[in-house]
Amino acid sequence: MAADEASLLPPPPPGSPRPETREGFDDRRDQTSQALQVAEDSAAAVPFFEEETSVDPAVSEESNGDLLQDVDEKPALPREQDSISAVIQALEEDSFIPPDVLDATLKGSDPAPDLSFSLHLLGTKYNDLVKRWLEKKSLEESAAPKHETLTRKYAELWAERKRLYNEVIELKGNIRVFCRCRPMNSEELSKGHSSVFEFDPSQDSELQILTTENSRKQFKFDHVFGPQDDQEAVFAETRPMVMSVLDGYNACIFAYGQTGTGKTFTMEGTLENRGVNYRTLEELFRVSEERSSLMRYEFFVSMLEVYNERIRDLLPENPNLPSKKLEVKQAAEGTQEVPGLVEAQTFSIDGVWELLQAGARNRSVGSTNANELSSRSHSLVRVTIRGENLMNGAKTRSHLWLVDLAGSERVGKIEVEGERLKESQFINRSLSALGDVIAALASKNPHSSLGIYSHLPFCNFFPFICWTLMFVQISPSSADLGETLCSLNFATRVRGIEQGPARKHADPSESFKFKQMAEKLRQEEKERARLNDTLQLLHVKYASRENVFKEKLRDLENQLAEERKARHLHQEDGNRFHNKPPLPPANQRRQPLGRISSNLPPPAQPRGSGGGGDWLAPVPEKENLPSVKRKLDNGGGAGGGATGKPPLMKARRILLAPVVRPAAAPAAGQSRRRASIAAVPGGAGDRPRARLSLAFSREVAATAGSVLRIPRRRSVMMMPLGTPDGKAGARGGGGGAAASGNKFSSPPQQGQWRSRIPSMASPRQRLRFLSSPAANRNMSSAGGGGAAQPAGGKLCFSVQKRLVVGSPLMKMKSFASREAAAPPSIIGRFGSAQRILSTNRRKSVF
Ligand SMILES: Nc1ncnc2c1ncn2[C@@H]1O[C@H](COP(=O)(O)OP(=O)(O)OP(=O)(O)O)[C@@H](O)[C@H]1O
């Protein structure tokens, strides 16, 4: 046995009998190997392994733990024979063999030590297998949810990447224009032509054309490739756009330019310098391989040629048969199709080059003076990509058009005639149509171009194309300057059309200016909206307030009407006052004038020669009506003839009844405006005093529609109108003169009056009480004992109150003009309102 073979055997356990001879050892090794093989085979065959997918990891771990626990708990078997039985039983039951049982197989004097050793080895191996299997199963099951989460996340990220990628492509522009200038060829150099192409590689989107010796014309494109840029550099810029085709977007790359400027070189290239077509397919295969775990792609290549407005298949199934005529038709789902066009499926990049070359060989080529190998047809390669998402089953189908257009040179330059002239005309017409189609595409109404340019089939596909890349190929030679400028102008037009309102290539400073303007406009719009809202709110507020005011006005008018009505009734009642003036019902005493008027005395008889008798006659209307005023002027003036003064002005409110006013505040629902005059016994001194308590409500209607706010309650203390000797004798009109003198010349004191008279139910009761001897006694004692009593126990005074609203000075001036000699006495002032006592109107109260 070789040494290395011996090293493969496991070391025998300590204490185990070892064979002495090489032969014995070899036999034992063979037996062990056979036993191991049998054990492994049996382990592979037992259902234990087949059931692995149905075992719960928690349960398996638990059972594993139980097994190990059982091992610990089982007592060591003393006898070797028993241990062998235990091992065999464990194997039969597919359970873990306890290590001590295994060890026991080697102990003692076994008649077959090799068998014991083999059994031990087998058991150990078996235990290892069970342990590994359990670990593997546990790992698999714990990783399963993670695997699912990761797969889902991957799918989400992939979808997001796809969206962002295509968004970037869109932001870069749906139509991009690259310019490529080929190097000067030997013929041009030999003829001594100079290069008109100027290009700074650091400014890779600008080029300049020397139009004359001193002037240049600048052009800007998405990218400019100079003569030194190779095919790889060109494709590096193209690659990002190609990728979106795999995401299900249609795309188109076409080369445009004068004959011999390198269109075919850019698109097809050569074996050494493969062009865009080959590199694109190569890239598509590479990426599809990358995505193979998520997507499955199928690629189909078609090649066709448009020659003199006829479509020809460049990959016919049988090249020997004449090519059939193809047409672009609209499919049922609205897409454009070319029925009958061969679609060659390609499974790898290996066969693509051959395929492209075969198609290129079938192109209609001719020879002109401009370029011997110039193609007089448009060559189109269509790559169809069918994709299927392996996770959700979503399917996509997209086309990539790779177009090598015919030379764009003007007919006049090429000296052709006959068939060649016809070709040139077709070419020029189709190229001019291409511009129109692109313009329609850029004007966001690409469907308008459908069907009108069937001679350029890929134009019909433009509406379904997500993005387009145009290579404008130019020659650097001064001999081709005219054609170069034409091509560049056309490309500029294509790019300019696309730029329009698009998002790219806007001047940064201009865009910043526009952004600022837009921001300002937005702010102004916001402000305008805010002001509008405020205005609306004010309108609403104004409308609600107007309603409130209208309501108030209506209330006031109602009150005024009630007052008029009450006054009218009270004046009628006044005619019967000598008997018992009736009080209006409590609910009609809300208005102060109603209350006052309810106590009107009976009309006084004319006294004296003044004959002012009729001024006290019941006035049907308000006292400040013009008719009344005239009456007052005539009668009152005469009545007050003792002074001979004309009345100051119309009185608005007249209080005639002496009212004992309780100190308590008016109950809710009572009149808001009250005026009362109470004649009460005076204080110390021999002069009887009458206290006039004038209480005003908070609001006094000064004029219709205006409300004057005054303090809720005021009491005005006034001197009584009795005679200095204490006789408050009855006075007629002439008595007015006495009362108008110094009785009210000094401003009255203001103070709080507290009634010492028992509260009476009604003014009439109070009046009776005041007239009674008991009251006189009562008042006399209250007044200091020494006070003279009113004659006959009767109280007689005259008072007139006037409410003047407005500036006191103005009113005074007004009074002065009419009554210069006797200014009215102001007995109370509440804000801009004054209470004035005048003597030109008097009423006697008993
Ligand atoms: N960038 C370039 N670098 C090197 N050689 C170039 C380049 N561009 C064009 N050429 C060479 O110029 C010649 C004319 O090119 P090509 O045939 O591609 O022009 P074309 O525009 O396709 O002409 P046509 O309109 O006749 O098809 C070819 O020999 C080509 O190898």
TrEMBL record:
Coiled-coil region(s) at which residues?
A: none
One GO cellular-component annotation of the UniProt record comes to: microtubule
Q: Name one Pfam family in it.
A: Kinesin
Which segments show compositional bias classed as Gly residues? Answer: 634-643, 729-738
Question: What are the Kinesin motor domain coordinates in residue numbering?
Answer: 174-497
Q: Entry's InterPro entries? A: Kinesin-like_fam, Kinesin_motor_CS, Kinesin_motor_dom, Kinesin_motor_dom_sf, P-loop_NTPase
Report residues binding ATP. Answer: G257, Q258, T259, G260, T261, G262, K263, T264
The organism sits in which domain of life? Eukaryota
* Segments for region (Disordered): 1-45, 567-647, 727-756
Basic and acidic residues bias (residue ranges): 19-31, 567-576
SMART domains documented for this protein: KISc
Record key words, sorted: ATP-binding, Microtubule, Motor protein, Nucleotide-binding
What family is reported?
Belongs to the TRAFAC class myosin-kinesin ATPase superfamily. Kinesin family.
Q: Per its record, how is this protein called by name?
A: Kinesin-like protein
Which organism is the protein's source? Spirodela intermedia
Q: What is the lineage of its organism?
A: Eukaryota, Viridiplantae, Streptophyta, Embryophyta, Tracheophyta
